[in-house]
Amino acid sequence: MTDNSRSQARILVVDDEPINLKLLDKLLRSEGYTELELVDSPAQVLPAYQRQRPDLILLDLNMPGMNGFEVLNQLQALNDPLMPPTIIVTAQSSHRFLLQALQAGARDFVTKPFDRHELLLRVRNSLDAHLSHVLLHDTQHQLAQQVELRGAALQRAESATKVKSKFLSNMSHELRTPMNAILGMLQLLQTTALNPSQTDYVQKTQQAAKSLLGILNDILDFSKIEAGKMQLDPEPFEFEQLLQELSFILFSNLGGKRLELLFDIDVDMPRVVVADALRLKQVLINLGSNALKFTAQGEVQLTVRVQRREAERVWVYFALRDSGIGIAPEQQARIFEGFSQAEASTSRRFGGTGLGLAISRRLVQLMGGDLQLHSVPGQGSTFYFEIPLGLSAPMAAEPQGLADWPDALQDWHLLVIEPHTAARALLLDLAATLHWPAQACTDPAQARELLEQAHAAGQPFQAVWFDIEALPADQALQQLQQLRQPLPDGSAAPHIFLLARPGVDLSWSAMLKADATASAASESWLFKPITFSSVKTSMQRWLRHGSTQASAATAPELAGAPPSHCPGLAGVRILLVEDNPINQDVAMQLLQREGALVTLAENGLEAVQRLSTPQLDFDLVLMDMQMHVMDGLQATRLIREQLKLLDLPIVAMTANAMASDRDACLAVGMNDHVGKPFDIVQLVAVMQRILGCAPAGGTAAASASAPVDLSSAVAQVTATVVLDAETAVKRLGGDRLFYIKILQRFVALLEQELHQAQHHWEAAEGKLAERLLHTLKGNAGAVGAHLLSQALAAAEKTARALAPGMLLPPYPVELYRLAQAVQQASDDLHRLWALPLPSMAPAPAAAPVAEGQALSPQVRQSLEHLIPLLAAQDMEALDRFDELMAHHDTLPATAQVQALQAAMDGMDFLAAHDLAVALLAQP
Ligand code: ADP
Fold first, then answer.
1. What is the pTM assigned to this prediction?
2. Domain 235-390 has CATH 3.30.565.10
3. Which ligand 1 atom sits closest to the C-alpha of 352?
4. Nearest C-alpha neighbor of 264 from the set 300, 309, 310, 293
């Protein structure tokens, strides 16, 4: 305590003896205490205290009227938190008195006659303690006030932030709407006649508009997260699908950079997981795009590892590693904050908003993980996190694993030609996972030697993986020609898989076409990033088609090329009538990829105008229903009635296909309809059917005319993947002919029945759709088409819940694809087993026997045998029914018998059962 603050302290001196008061006054003043108040009666203490609180009280004990104890009691009753200390100054020296004084609240005491020094020291000590207490109390009070003020300020700031975030979110939403319109208009602009510099301006504007839209989307996400509005939407999804979409986007971001994009995916990763796929993809795209952006050479690798499995979820580690510029330690924490970049120069060199990582970190937190970073400047960065992913149905949660790995693909002796170190290591790891003995080398010349050595040593390679992107294309082709050469003893070189990113195959197809050295089925494509599943798909495709394909030189697409490269609508002239720019763009792109020549009409009226111009000829019209100016129905009516274009196929595109909509379409003369958003496979199939050309993909047609030289490997793959024929035949007592018969019967009606089910589905006739899907599921299971059967079971389950008025889920159009695969497998199998084609001719019509005629005992007996078989959905029912029909001369030609025949043809055993029972019940 300073002397100054002490000298300003107020001291109240209480004594009934004036002489004592004087003495104390003098003594205290001599020590520099100037603020003294002297009172000679105890009654004056309280008023003096209340006038101004003293810092110390010197109190006599024995006073007339009220003693010192009573004064102390009065003061204590005030409950003043800043109560000053009291020093008792008394002639009483008895110990009992002093104790009583301390008990009553006195701080200290001095006995009279007092020692001058002692008194001053005690005054000083008590004052110091009190003044410190007062100081502390004041500080505390000030602090409390500050905290209160800050709290209020924080609250204001927080609510301001919320308002700001809301504003940002509203604004970016509002901005996005016109942005979409701008993008749409730019697309439209590009469809008009433009000179080259106008085209250039439009493309640049479009580029700028797209990046602006990207920034708006980022701001929207960021503000949503900041406002606590971001919610995840977990749904089951196929993990492989996510990887495919991710690789597609990252490859398109790669541009011309010579970087390796590698995926190292755990073979134990479940096939289906439950999470917000969109947001997970957003995080991975963001990390992957950054990695590509900040890496000039080397590789970018995505690693996915299953860490541990629990009953209902699986913990998965994701890491994106690059060999790029890295991030300085002092920047590593900062870059996760919004709007910040590692260094000003980086952002200028590379562009960006600095929002991506902030959004990604928060999204990962929402998913239950933490986005972390390990980075060394100049060497690269790894962003990683671990999150739980839900497991849905136990079967879907099965890892892709090696369990269903086809026998034909066991123990392949593999040679890998890959100069890139990380890629080579990854490919060898993959081979090890597959238990394939593999060897690797860095260049094809070395590979040729290894091929010959292995062959000579009696351990020939069965396949070669050759990364053709590591060399300039002409050199790669030369090396490929070398690798293809027969081995010294004349035997064929192993099959070569060409490793490249999707799209490279297109630029190679012309080269391969012109290459005279290409031999039949010498190569297949294996598309990067190479994963367990892509290897499986490519190998299976090769096993199924590779050996029967025409040579690489004659086929523009090698086995293994994605279906989008096998145009299913090549040269078909389509008039697309659609007024929504986004839908226009989507439809145009998809159709053009299938090889169609698409002309756009903005609305029904424009379509009618175009079709009335004789020099414009179209094969088919794809017509939206609801459009401004003129809708699809009116346009079709005009096309049919006024333009008299009766044969021109018109397919309606209907968003929420209600039965009434469809009927209206057909009533005005449309040929068919497809749902929107449409599935290109289904759309192509519909168009091909209407145009009367080959089925989609052309594979069925191709293999039908191919020589019958299917290897046993094909049978194996066919058997295990699409159609488990062997097991099904075993169940039928080993009768292959019978099996083929029921298979063909099943396949013949499959597509039609799927359409029928779709019809019910889209009309919200849940019960009918469920029934049909249920029957198909049973039949698919019976013929061993397990994949299809599983998909049908899932569809059946969904169909059960369909009800009128609900927002209908889209019909699972992948059923058509699976059906096609079964059809293909059935054809292969038939040729493989070299069986005569069973007669698909309709069963003989019922004989013209009079209606109402009684059933013969023979027919009754057959029906009695048939009914339990039908109830058990036993395939034998088909044979029994054929036997029954052999007695057709005694079977009445009633509608009921015809219905029974139809049900048997469709293998709808349950319907057939009811009909047979009803038939038998007749007299
Ligand atoms: P943006 O890329 O839009 O600037 P991000 O939030 O995604 O925003 O990234 C912030 C900053 O972090 C980048 O500007 C860059 O400086 C740094 N950064 C992110 N990823 C990498 C990476 N893989 N390598 C080096 N620097 C990176």
1. 0.49
2. yes
3. 3
4. 300
